[in-house]
């Protein structure tokens, strides 16, 4: 039996269901809205496992699911050396979001990452502690800042409502996912010019640890992959 992991709620779940339906495989939740059990029609030997999007990388890595749908941001953040754990089978064309670094909109002299690096250096000299960046994307942000030789900062963990941390005085800057930009604007933040830390979208992935069941080839062919 192939175990297919799909996000258990929200837009990501609905758009995943639509994506499979367009390929002739009907996924649905069984029972009440609160029951996390799923049904698969239009493909044999496939069971639907409804999971938090954030847990799908770990389940793929462990081989407890054969296939999984989640954002590329979560795969790259949660799995060190992700290429040795999963294969990306198909970008799915939804869940587009950019991981960005944002600063207070009132920082007039901070438009680029170079400006940010200068401000971070001065901040440390002036305040005696490193400028704080709130994020849940620790691995990706550290790697990106290191690549760009920015060192005078500290990460503050924020697992939600990250854009609020600047007004709450627990951070000077944030690194988070944005799509429409509305949450940033509403919290008086602006994105630094230049390419984002990462461009993410929902992706269908195969576990490299779950083994290569015969049914898997049949199912991926059914999906046109
Ligand atoms: N505003 C957005 N627009 C598009 N995609 C988004 C947006 N916010 C988050 N995403 C994407 O959705 C995926 C799931 O995000 P997140 O980790 O916030 O899950 P969640 O909805 O909080 O679910 P859970 O708490 O169950 O893990 C991520 O890959 C993320 O990139
Ligand atoms: O650019 P926008 O269109 O405003 O979207 C960005 C927001 O969407 C995500 O939050 P989500 O609503 O998924 O909730 P979360 O903060 O609990 O992750 C993300 O963390 C941002 O806060």
UniProtKB/TrEMBL annotation:
Q: Which InterPro entries does the UniProt record give?
A: ATP_PRibTrfase_cat, ATP_PRibTrfase_HisG
Q: Name one GO molecular function term.
A: ATP phosphoribosyltransferase activity
Query: What are the residue boundaries of the ATP phosphoribosyltransferase catalytic domain, all occurrences included?
Result: 53-210
Enzyme Commission code: 2.4.2.17
Pathway field of the UniProt record reads: Amino-acid biosynthesis; L-histidine biosynthesis; L-histidine from 5-phospho-alpha-D-ribose 1-diphosphate: step 1/9
User: Superkingdom, according to UniProt?
Assistant: Bacteria
Provide the reaction this enzyme catalyses.
Answer: 1-(5-phospho-beta-D-ribosyl)-ATP + diphosphate = 5-phospho-alpha-D-ribose 1-diphosphate + ATP
Q: Which residues cross the membrane?
A: none
Q: Which UniProt keywords apply?
A: Amino-acid biosynthesis, Glycosyltransferase, Histidine biosynthesis, Transferase
**Is Transferase one of the keywords?**
yes
So what does this one do? Answer: Catalyzes the condensation of ATP and 5-phosphoribose 1-diphosphate to form N'-(5'-phosphoribosyl)-ATP (PR-ATP). Has a crucial role in the pathway because the rate of histidine biosynthesis seems to be controlled primarily by regulation of HisG enzymatic activity.
Cross-referenced NCBIfam families: hisG
Name this protein carries in UniProt: ATP phosphoribosyltransferase
């Amino acid at each position: 039996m192939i175990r297919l992991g799909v996000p258990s709620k929200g837009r990501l779940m609905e758009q995943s269901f639509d994506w499979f339906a367009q390929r002739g495989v009907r996924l649905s939740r069984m029972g009440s809205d609160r029951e996390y059990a799923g049904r698969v029609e239009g493909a044999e030997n496939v069971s639907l496992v409804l999971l938090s999007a954030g847990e799908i990388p770990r389940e793929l890595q462990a081989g407890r699911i054969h296939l999984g749908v989640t954002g590329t941001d979560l795969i790259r953040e949660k799995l060190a050396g992700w290429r040795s754990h999963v294969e990306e089978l198909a970008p799915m064309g939804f869940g587009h979001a950019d991981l960005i670094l944002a600063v207070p909109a009132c920082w007039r002299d901070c438009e680029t990452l170079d400006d940010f690096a200068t401000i971070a250096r001065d901040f440390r000299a002036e305040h005696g502690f490193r400028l704080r960046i709130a994020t849940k994307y620790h691995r990706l942000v550290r790697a990106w800042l290191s690549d760009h030789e920015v060192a005078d900062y500290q990460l503050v963990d924020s697992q939600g409502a990250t854009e609020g941390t600047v007004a709450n005085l627990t951070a000077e800057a944030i690194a988070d996912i944005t799509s429409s930009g509305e949450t940033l604007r509403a919290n008086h933040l602006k994105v630094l010019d230049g390419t984002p830390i990462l461009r993410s979208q929902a992706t269908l992935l195969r576990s490299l640890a779950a083994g290569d069941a015969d049914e898997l080839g049949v199912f991926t062919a059914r999906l046109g992959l």
